[in-house]
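Task: complex structure prediction.
Instruction: return structure tokens for all chains below.
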Amino acid sequence: MTIKDIARLAGCGVATVSRVLNGQPDVSPRTRERVLAVVAEHDFRPNSNARRLKQRADTAVPVLVQGTQNMLFAGLVEQVQAHLRDHGRQAALYYLDEDADGAAFAARLCRERRPAGILFLGGTARAFQRSFAAVTAPCVLLTGSARELGFDNLSSLTTDDEAAAFQAASYLLDRGHRAIGVLGGSRPLTQIGLRRLAGLERAFGSRGLTFDLDRRWEPCRYDLEGGYEAARRLMERCPELTALFTMSDVTAMGAIRALGDLGLRVPEDVSVMGYDGIPMARYCVPRLTTICQDTGLMARRGVELLLERMDRGGPPVYETAPFRLQEGESVADLRQSGKRGS
Amino acid sequence: MTIKDIARLAGCGVATVSRVLNGQPDVSPRTRERVLAVVAEHDFRPNSNARRLKQRADTAVPVLVQGTQNMLFAGLVEQVQAHLRDHGRQAALYYLDEDADGAAFAARLCRERRPAGILFLGGTARAFQRSFAAVTAPCVLLTGSARELGFDNLSSLTTDDEAAAFQAASYLLDRGHRAIGVLGGSRPLTQIGLRRLAGLERAFGSRGLTFDLDRRWEPCRYDLEGGYEAARRLMERCPELTALFTMSDVTAMGAIRALGDLGLRVPEDVSVMGYDGIPMARYCVPRLTTICQDTGLMARRGVELLLERMDRGGPPVYETAPFRLQEGESVADLRQSGKRGS
DNA sequence: CTCTGTTCCGGAATCGTTTCCAGTTCCACT
DNA sequence: AGTGGAACTGGAAACGATTCCGGAACAGAG
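Output:
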């Protein structure tokens, strides 16, 4: 069953059928109706492979996601997919694993499918640089900043990480915490890690304090095991800590488990501040005090930015999304309890 | 840059280039080498849309996933994608939301792409029946059973749910629990829910007890909120319960939060048994005692089953995967503590 | 030298669309 | 009635691969 058959059955040419199927003008209502009737009767769907071949570009938008375990992305994926669908487009999802293999595979795929635009969910700018620098189609990076890279095809939309980290650190400092450890990021630091640490240091600085980066920062992968291992290492090195600032909620949960295994209670002995605001943060034990990223906004705006540039071109844009500190039960107020000063 | 350009540069015909690219015989080593050199020099990739058009089938395998929040599927997705890649194929992921809209959209898409096979991760057989009954390509359903449906294109691979529920219930009964509530499934019961409840009832029956389905079973969505709400409803209706058997770890975590909000401790006041064995089960507080599904096996075998039937045809098969009860800290032994008998 | 068979090769048809372009119809207006 | 233009229509040429099929080259046998 092809467009040709439909044309024959409807008594018209293939060009007319194509026009009807694509909602183009220049078709009389009478003809349109007749064609639609035949299409409906046979439940006909045009072959998308042929369509894409002719149109020389894939209407599906590849969405490349960094890892499957960070639940922040699970929510983003769902919303991105929905927004793309609202715009009559499809999301083609790919999960990249840590290794370069996955990125290379995805890059090859992008060459073959010839997409008109790509959406990145997370992932370091460095990885992008390595595998996708040759891509000319417009791209958008969510939860990461591309401003510093200056690619002429990569926009980005990220939470105002410096301000968020400032507020998170201030929240801890205000509650009497001084010995604060930081969990997250990789060595060497990515842009996003740099900005978060900058916010943290500003919070310390504004109170006349300094943050001992070398001792009290521990890089870690953004998953449970990463948080667990990093927290153990950090607490072993700095047993004096009264609070941990983690760069993701999943990491925070791994850290909480590590603290528990070390016989430390959260938040009575050690406080934990999360980052992301995934749904789980409001259900886990204890509930996480965390920085909520606005995934709804990011998904909507990210898709908008991408489609806009796919349609009309223009230079890449760099935007920041608002955030909100959500209080849970994972941070203790040392001024009241008076336990373990430092 | 097309195959024609390559042919021109290599001084041969397009047919020869195509043969080389697809590793077919009937090409002299000399020519093959020359073509490969040109291909490598220009980093040429054949247009996959044209290829698929001619071959009349998409090599990508649609993978339809039920919801983004159930982390069991996150792991499965990752492994399925990897296995498909090992077989030289690509996964095309689609997340279905609860509403019929998503399923209808996915179904339309599957018709358009004309895939040679489809993989379902979770999802009720009922949903399949509604939207995909017309699909003739072989399909495989993971974590769900299709045996009872008798479609001639739908294989399935599921944990031996009856046996798993039997073991889980026995575990609780052995530790002195009698007032056990069940969280999960939907009304009316799906095949998978039926089998799990059957296993549970068998465990009760083997001890001369009966399970009061009407009072002590509460259906719920497989996410945090679903578990939370259902646990509250159930505990309100049956405050005498000493244990909850939930049909997913995520649900269990929602339930644990609900119990906490009701002032009940886990496991001291109420025990919770999970199902799935997601990574989070070993990190959350308290660690979950749960039924581990073998996602590694399911992903590998699921892909095998699908590709096998795509290549060689044959009738659908129905297999079960092994499971393992993993002990955490969410179940109390009433015989020792002697608290709250029932 | 002729014949047969194998190996290698390239032209051309094909897949199912979209889109260009030329042609037809039809209507309103001089 | 004649004309201009808009609205509509359908044939045919792409799009970029795969694959059928016939032909060329060459070897060995008779």
